[in-house]
Design a protein that fits this description.
Layout lengths: L1 H13 L8 H9 L1 E2 L6 E2 L4 E2 L9 E2 H12 L31 H15 L5 E3 L8 E3 L7 E3 L6 E3 L4 E2 L6 H6 L7 H13 L2 E2 L6 E2 L12
Antiparallel strand pairs: 1-2, 3-4, 5-6, 7-8, 8-9, 10-11
Helix pairs in contact: 3-4
Pathway: Protein modification; protein ubiquitination
Family: Belongs to the RBR family. Ariadne subfamily.
Pfam family, one: IBR
Length: 217
């Protein structure tokens, strides 16, 4: 009858159709690549080609951690960074990683390369603990220097904050508890007032009158 035909037509209309993957979904699957270290699927722009070897399926996160770990090592291992694949000695070039790795990692990598290119006898560090920038010794005769990073004065010969008015030879003979800013100021005052230092107790004394002989207390 007519009612039965209408119900049948309505039921046929409600039947689900079979789902088909869109061309966009196929493109997304093809764009994903598997990182050989973390085994996660990554987009193509997250995969970094390392040198001329065939081990190119590494994500930028894993390569970043690999580079950071190598930089933390000492010697040539901190500068000659190779592909993380076992037995592969292909070097990873810094320039090929600039656009993919974090700036902090790139900066440390450049610092390691710079440090390795300068002889150990030529490099020293800013004596101020909150700076500690690596510097290059230009000449052994230079004493008073300014750190180009923190712009504070220091003595390049003694490796300490600048000791104005005190010769390096005198300063280096001082004990560790005599090298403070206040101690240096006292030494400058003693020098200008021609005070003498007792060889026994190390206190400064001033002779105002009487014989030149002074007995230590």
């Amino acid at each position: 009858n007519e009612d039965g035909q209408e119900n049948q037509t309505h039921q046929q209309t409600l039947l689900p159709t079979q789902a088909h993957d869109s061309p966009q979904d196929d493109d997304k699957e093809q764009a994903l690549k598997l990182c050989e270290i973390c085994a996660d699927s990554k987009q193509s722009h997250q995969i970094l080609a390392v040198g001329a070897c065939t081990h190119a399926a590494y994500c930028t996160d894993c390569i970043s951690r690999h580079v950071a770990a190598k930089i933390g090592q000492s010697g040539a291992a901190a500068t000659v960074i190779t592909c993380p694949a076992s037995g592969c000695g292909t070097a990873i070039e810094l320039d090929s990683c600039r656009g993919a790795l974090p700036k902090a990692v790139i900066d440390k990598w450049e610092e390691a390369l710079c440090r390795n290119s300068i002889g150990e006898s030529q490099r020293f560090y800013c004596p101020f603990r909150d700076c500690s920038a690596m510097l290059v010794a230009e000449a052994e005769s230079i004493r008073e220097s300014e750190c180009p990073y923190c712009h504070r004065l220091f003595c390049a010969q003694c490796g300490v904050a600048w000791h104005s008015g005190v010769d390096c030879e005198v300063f280096q003979r001082l004990g560790q508890d005599e090298r403070g800013r206040e101690d240096i100021m006292v030494m400058e005052m003693a020098k200008s007032n021609k005070w003498r230092r007792c060889p026994n107790c190390k206190f400064y004394v001033e002779r105002t009158e009487g014989c030149p002989h002074i007995t230590c207390r």
